[in-house]
Specification:
It is built from eight helices and seven strands. The chain has a single domain, classed as Methyltransferase, alpha-helical capping domain (Non-ribosomal Peptide Synthetase Peptidyl Carrier Protein, Chain A). Strands 3-2-1-4-5-7-6 form a seven-stranded mixed sheet. The longest helix has 25 residues. The protein is α/β, with parallel strands linked by helices. Helix 3 links the parallel strand 4 and strand 5.
Length: about 325
């Protein structure tokens, strides 16, 4: 099994735990005496902090596993597999199950074609797809996603056994809800804050105009067509769902109540955790506190209006 785009935070091993619980309950229901041994690969780019996973998170995971005392479970071996999931990672016919959550909307690179032949930025004033992005910019992002997602499918088709399954969750865009028209609205807020800082002279305009995030939120139709065109996998489930940007703020305690400013701060904090390294490399670290303070207020207003939403695509595929 493999978790593709695992990152290194507290949720890194959550998919593995849920998989093991499912295997455990299935074995009990079918009266199997013993489940097979499990080999689980954690995959992310080589720069991911795998040391944190193996030094801190994995020992706690094994301790919890021992305390739960799952009967009829075979041994579980966890290993790292650094590399880009847009290409090959595993031997032919070796994977039985692959999982990826909130990773596949990231591209292998910023799309080509975002600058004119004369060197003029075409997505001027934006850091992602937005209302003012010209059709050529939309096409460039769509083309890059098509290339990357097709490469992902081809690589997994070679690596997975016949009948192997994938569960993929990633951010998309909605054909019906204006709040998720581009799928990148949460990024647009950061772009709005950056434009304010340009107007105030805190950032040079060229820095904003020359920055674009390597992320594309596809429509359900785009994804279906690419899966069907590649032809190796059958779609067994395809769901679309919308969730609030602050959906996990209670952290399991539903009795907690937060005002809009606390909700905005929560969203701003996790966006900073996800994006700061990308933004710092281009804009520098000095503006980060001010940038995310501005974003926090903007996120609060979106949430208060009920338009701070992710449009998620959740897909189950079976290898033919």
């Amino acid at each position: 099994m493999a978790d593709l785009g695992c990152s290194s935070g507290p949720n890194t091993l959550l998919p593995l735990w849920e998989i093991m619980e499912t295997i455990h309950s299935t074995c009990r229901r079918m009266n199997h005496q013993k489940a097979p041994a499990l080999q689980f690969f954690l995959n992310d780019l080589p720069g991911n902090d795998f040391n944190t996973v193996f030094r801190s998170l994995l020992p706690k995971f094994y301790d919890k596993l021992e305390k739960e005392k799952f009967d009829k479970l075979g041994p579980c071996f966890v290993a790292a597999m650094p590399g880009s999931f847009h290409g090959r990672l595993f031997p032919d016919n070796s994977l039985h199950f692959a999982h990826s959550s909130y990773s596949l909307h990231y591209l292998s690179q910023v799309p080509a074609g975002l600058v004119s032949e004369s060197g003029v930025p075409l997505n001027k004033g934006n850091i992602c797809l937005a209302k003012t992005s010209p059709p050529s910019v939309h096409k460039a992002y769509e083309d890059q996603f098509e290339k990357d997602f097709t490469s992902f499918l081809i690589s997994r088709s070679l690596e997975m056994v016949s009948g192997g399954r994938m569960v993929l969750t990633f951010m998309g865009r909605s054909a019906h809800n204006p709040a998720c028209k581009y799928g990148s609205e949460i990024w647009q807020v950061v772009g709005d804050a950056l434009r304010e800082m340009v107007d105030e002279g805190k950032i040079e305009e060229w820095k904003l105009d020359s920055y674009n995030i390597p992320s594309h939120k596809p429509s359900a139709q785009e994804v279906r067509q690419l899966i069907q065109r590649e032809g190796t996998f059958n779609i067994t489930r395809f769901e679309e769902e919308e969730v609030s940007w602050d959906a996990n703020i209670e952290d399991g305690n539903e009795e907690l109540v937060f005002d809009k400013w606390a909700r905005g701060k929560f969203v701003s904090n996790y966006m900073r955790a996800v994006t700061e390294s990308m933004l710092t490399s281009h804009f520098g670290s000095a503006i980060m506190d001010g940038l995310f303070d501005r974003a926090s207020s903007k996120y609060a207003n979106y949430l208060e209006k009920g338009i701070g939403l992710f449009h998620n695509l959740v897909i189950t595929l079976v290898k033919k």
